Amino acid sequence: MKLNRNLTLMSIAIFFSVIGSFLLTIAFSVNVYSKTGSAFQASLLFLTQWLPNIFLAIFGGGISDRIKPSRLSPVLDCIAGVLTLSFLWVLDISSFGSLLILMCLRGFVTQMMISVRAVAIKAFFDPGETASMGSWVQTSYYVAFGLAGLIGASLIEHISLSALVWIDSITFFISAVLFYFTKELSHYQGESQKEIFIKNPFRDLSNAWMKTVAHKRIFESVGLVVLVAAFFQGSYTIIQTVLPIDVFHMGATGVSLYFGICSLGVISGTMVYQRLMKTKFFTLSDHHNNTRTRYIQVLVLLFMPVGLYIIVGYTKIFWINAIAYFFFALFFEVVWLKKQMQIIKESPQEHVGKIMGLKNGFGFALMAFINVITGKLLGVLQIGDTITLLMLFYVLGCLAVLFVSHMYVPMPKTVMCQNKS
Predict the structure, then answer these.
(1) Residue spans of alpha helices (H) in 156-192
(2) Among 64, 79, 179, 374, which has the minimal tally of Cβ within 10 Å of its Cβ?
(3) CA separation (Å) from 29 to 68, 91, 161, 218, 241?
(4) Percent helix, strand and coil across the chain, each rounded to 5?
(5) Taking the CB of residue 85, how many other CB atoms lie within 10 A of it?
(6) Positive or negative CA dihedral for 262, 360, 373, 384?
(7) Across residues 278-299, what is the average pLDDT?
């Protein structure tokens, strides 16, 4: 009963919090691109959401490991709600610089929530249920992303941005109330250190790095999750704003539709992942290493979204483009969930937050870079050429991670013993 209660409260809280985090970002990006025609300026709004993770990679993971997520998350939600209200003073396009600063400040808070909620998955659910419960929790993120796209892009044509700011702020406070009533399992223990404020945050970052490079599965999963999120999410957040406006001339309605398609694809990807978890194709890679099955699985999962994404870039027929985009989002989610859940599952309990912070730091820094590069490339290249160029570097990056993992990263002896048994 306790597990169901935690799952329900956490999923609903994340749903509201993510809508609060993403709603205005989408509305502002559509507003800015419609008025300026600059994909680069629109991309800067997404950049402010991801750039703070460079700082949080050093400080955020350690804090989230030291404070119970049921207490830290409501505080972060309330701070985000208050910061959102400050947007009321920078709604005019002439205040674009001030808006970016305020969104960056809120980005520190909302991205800190990601590390806290990764710890919460470990704190709220038994080890055997971490992957399945965690995948359903992740679904609430993408339902919220999709609805935020539908609501944000549609409402901007019917209500004022100031009204959206108030709606945005309220969702954070709803999330805070819901998370307050969650409760950690009785046997859960955070990091044993008593201090909450970190005396040496670089030590935490160093410890997380050492734990990552000392475990083949963690290293590979962190590296691949970083690349998957950076190259796909870092580019499609701006492409699904530009594509329906420039190619299909659908305006804000088309942007809403593409956010909805993406959300539906991701939710379907979660369901597919749940099914695949029980298959031999998935479980073999969790219990055996350096096998043909493991590498075939990784390569298929990593490269399937690439072909679909390129089809999206070059296809001018709307219904074919929409179907390809749906399946691209589906495979993207399967790949991301597979590796994300493996990080949480394999990481030591007292280091989950720090390893996730390290992953988020690298991932969101690269995602921010890819987002800005995508905005720049769209100014000089066609959408299809932009996607193809990005995917070339994505494939090279994945192959590099797999090569380094295979040649230089060890598998802990305890895991090898489990495999033999």
Answers:
(1) 161-180
(2) 79
(3) 35, 12, 12, 35, 8
(4) 85, 0, 15
(5) 14
(6) negative
(7) 60
CB 101 within 8 A of CB 83: no
Which residue type does 170 have?
I
Q: Say which residue the tokens 């945050």 belong to.
A: 201
Q: Tokens 């870092």 map to which residue? A: 234
**All domains of the chain, ordered by start, with CATH?**
2-181+202-420 (1.20.1250.20)
| Spatial separation of the C-alpha atoms in residues 87 and 166, rounded to whole Å | 10
Residue 53: pLDDT band (50, 70, 90) is: low
278: phi then psi, degrees, rounded to nearest 5:
-95, 0
* Distance, CA of 255 to CA of 261 (rounded, Å): 10
pLDDT in tens, 17-33: 777 677 777 777 777 88
Q: Say whether 190 sits in a helix, a strand or coil.
A: coil
Mutual angle of helices 318-346 and 251-276, in 10-degree steps: 50
Asked whether 115 and 61 are in contact (CB, 8 A), the reply is yes
> Band of the pLDDT at 156, cuts 50, 70, 90?
low
How far is it, in rounded angstroms, from Cα 262 to Cα 247?
17
Dist. CA 75–CA 116, nearest whole Å: 11
- The distance between the two most distant Cα atoms of the chain, rounded to a whole number of Å, is 65
Nearest to 19 by CA among 159, 118, 111, 147: 147
Residue entry with tokens 């008025």: 35
C-alpha radius of gyration, the chain, whole number: 21
Q: How many residues does the chain have?
A: 421
